[in-house]
Amino acid sequence: MRIPMLIISAAASSLFLSCAQQEVTDCLGNHAQHEGLRYADEVAAQSPFETVEVSWSGALQLMEERNLAYRKAMNSYLAANQETPMVSQIRSQLKTSVKVSLNDVLKPQSLAKSFQDPITALPKQLGSISALKDISHEMEQTVWSKEGDSVEAKLLMRKEQVKLYTLLCKGEVIDREIKRIDAEASEPSDQIDPKLKVAQEKWVASVMKDRDDWIGEVRDFFNAEYYDVIFRKDASAKPSYRSVSAPDLTEWQRWCFLSRSQSLVKALKENHKKSKPAVPGTRVMKEKVAEMLNQRAEYAVTLSTDKVRGEVRTLISNWREMKSTQAELSLLDPGKVSSDDPKRDLVKAQKVYKLRHQEINHTSVVWMMDEDCWRD
């Protein structure tokens, strides 16, 4: 009897092993196919052998899908604006721990009961108030932390958006100059000064190097090894401010608002952490009383004066340099091309090219500080 049992056991083991092997093979094959298709899709998306053409608004969507820094910031922003288990836990604790509200404590019948049985009633009521203060303080600290994470994430996302539009604008300037060079090369020229020819060749090499560097930045930004990219400008372009002479820079809701909010949230969060727990509504009550008595509002924190001054100077200086560059460009009349003097044309093209890049650099700083650029 033992031999047949051994045979049956061996056969069963062999069958189970065969089934397990088949299960592993099928599972691995299915997953390999799935990942293989994803790989193939990614190769196609990175277009290693063909030029990719995309609009500026399409580039914005592409950034949301492929830019690592933007995606990380977006995930942080979404996480900061979702209720965390800690908040739910605090709310649950608030419901179970705080049995008596402040209004209940101040009711005449509650006070009378406390005086009748002070040994047991008062500690319970005072303990409830203390728990209410502690839990409220902890919850508000959590909200401050989440608000800080949210503002930080928005700031990081905006930085990536500004990087994108800076790349788009610089690419436009580079491609425009390449077109000018190609058009100039196609025109017949009988006699060219050898020195001028050398200068033109050096300039062409310089612009093409800028183009190579630019496409490298584009590849890094989108995390893709594109063969080449052509961006088509559309209505999503950010303002150039060329028709704006002197905006009201005192509009604090518009200028430097996001970076200032980041500093404020950080300072207020630290201030709240150091403050003593208080009954919910105490601050609002104090503000109402101060308003009724026509007293000046007291603020928990004040940002560094030097920081505020530095921020204002950054905005003003970049605005001034941007407008100065634009004024110089308008005098050069970049759209007008003269073929009478090739040397003068080259010098002018080089100057316009340089000024355009300077304009973009200053304008990008203003974009970062201007809330109107980012309103839907």
Count of folded domains: 2
- Spatial shape: flat
Encode the helix/strand succession as letters.
HEHHHHHHHEHHHH
Question: What do the pLDDT scores average to?
Answer: 82
Extract low-pLDDT stretches.
97-108
Strand content: under 5%
Number of distinct beta strands: 2
Largest sheet: 2 strands, parallel
Class of secondary structure makeup: mainly alpha
- The count of helical stretches stands at 12
Strand order of the largest sheet: 1-2
Radius of gyration: 34 Å
Cα distance, first to last residue?
A: 83 Å
* Amount of helix: over 70%
Question: What does this molecule look like?
Answer:
The chain has twelve helices and two strands. By secondary structure, it is mainly α. The chain folds into two domains: 1-46; 47-374. The protein has a two-stranded parallel sheet with strand order 1-2. Helix 7 (118-186) packs antiparallel against helix 12 (342-369). The longest helix has 69 residues, at 118-186. The model is unreliable at 97-108 (pLDDT under 50).
Short structural description:
With 376 residues, the chain is mainly alpha-helical. It has twelve helices and two strands. The chain folds into two domains: 1-46; 47-374.
Features:
single chain, 376 residues, mainly alpha, 2 domains, two-stranded parallel sheet, 2 strands, 74% helix
Helix-strand layout with pairing:
Blueprint: H1 2-46, E1 51-55, H2 56-66, H3 68-80, H4 85-97, H5 102-106, H6 108-116, H7 118-186, H8 194-222, E2 228-232, H9 257-274, H10 282-292, H11 305-332, H12 342-369
Parallel strand pairs: 1-2
